[in-house]
Amino acid sequence: xxxxxxxxxxxxxxxxxxxxxxxxxxxxxxxxxxxxxxxxxxxxxxxxxxxxxxxxxxxxxxxxxxxxxxxxxxxxxxxxxxxxxxxxxxxxxxxxxxxxxxxxxxxxxxxxxxxxxxxxxxxxxxxxxxxxxxxxxxxxxxxxxxxxxxxxxxxxxxxxxxxxxxxxxxxxxxxxxxxxxxxxxxxxxxxxxxxxxxxxxxxxxxxxxxxxxxxxxxxxxxxx
Length: 224
Hints:
Layout: E1 26-33, E2 36-47, E3 53-65, E4 68-82, E5 85-95, E6 98-107, E7 110-115, E8 127-128, E9 141-143, E10 150-165, E11 168-179, E12 183-187, E13 193-200, E14 203-210
């Protein structure tokens, strides 16, 4: 199969790394399987005193059949950015009972630190798997926010589709990632990440943007 190079595919999607950051400072997503909710994801955007963009991410997934729990996932991470460059990434994850932590910082053009699959091979520029930066689909290598491994992928442009987002039609371009990172991802021309589809343990899951008001209040969140 012929794949269009990542550097040439995204001419209609904004190259502004802040294009997907909402004015209200929060992006929210529902995580579903066969249109049934399994969990949610929240990204909160704030500015530090020094002017860096601080992104706090929370993910919860609970997959059950009846009362029987089959899979549990909790993830908290914090990213610090300046001018489109990731300065640091810290995360904690409960991956179905397996605890993982990541602590990375940018030093002399490389990301150094720790993570279960960190191999000291993370040369900048790299983007983590938080997806909000629309230049994600212009890359061929990424940092796993869960375990700090290097993920490589080729990006294929599928085409423009009309999605139902927050009960309204939204046009977005669909891209497919092939390689160690396998998923389909949709961005609007303004750079807003609106949807992802991926397969986990044989189950197709979708992450779809929703109104932040649909997310449980913070005091009810379950952390790793």
